[in-house]
């Protein structure tokens, strides 16, 4: 896979595909992770300050890598952050991801990010946005880790926006300059709200001054002024999380006789930008199918025996029904 970082779920293998005429599904084998952050948050499991710092450190490291590669995830939420019993965390589910768009005149999809974690610029109909929408989502998750409840839990996008302004106050006009006219009017005609950031200190005992300071840098109305993943990683709040991760959990540092050696900021400083230029030559679904089919077969070239689906598995019934249906279609075509 393109992503070469321990903070993003890796594709270990792909099942051998059938003949291209029957090729309708892709089975990807990934690393086994035992749970996700949503299940951890709603569980009775106690979350200490160390837990929160280690989780937040890994999320931001993953986002730093993705953003450096020019990728917007666009659906960062607890359910898309897989964890195991050792508190190792990996970002997954790139179904809404896309390459960043430097041209601000180009319109971008607005129905992205699960509502509770959706940045205000998207809620207000901005036609263009940056990777700072992912940082907003991380801020919401950070608050959720501290308080063990969803920070902005609303029934509609408008109510979502109202809950955000209840906490951050009414934004100045320049902070919502990219919002649609209707959203601007909704904000401006409402009563002026003062920020009530002191509420964040009441989330839990873990909401220290440093934690709230970092959280406030993430939850900024103006996306231009929102902290980046790189700068967030340099915040003093994460010093302990970085140390704990690299002394106990990571695979990037190595051990010597005298103890574990921390290799520091081990990710490459210049991550190659993701190249999606091949998409410009794709004009049909069949062409996409051919490209994927060829890619899988090329990946499986070598001496090893390719993995195949287990006929005893629950998924096999669906798989064989699909294959049989397409085979019958091909046979009828041949008869004609």
Task: Give a description of the structure.
The two termini are 42 Å apart. The strands form 4 sheets. Strands 3-5-6 form a 3-stranded antiparallel β-sheet. Strands 1-2 form a two-stranded antiparallel sheet. The protein has a two-stranded antiparallel sheet with strand order 4-7. The protein has helices spanning 37-42, 49-68, 120-123, 132-147, 157-168, 181-189, 209-218, 229-233, 239-248, 285-299, 314-335, and strands at residues 11-14, 28-30, 35-36, 71-72, 81-83, 89-91, 98-99, 254-256, 259-261. Helix 2 (49-68) crosses helix 9 (239-248). It has a domain at 37-261: Transferase(Phosphotransferase) domain 1 (Transferase(Phosphotransferase), domain 1), CATH 1.10.510.10. By secondary structure, it is mainly alpha-helical. The radius of gyration is 23 Å and the shape is globular. The chain is built from 11 helices and 9 strands. Mean pLDDT is 85; it is low at 329-336. A hairpin with a 2-residue loop joins strand 8 and strand 9.
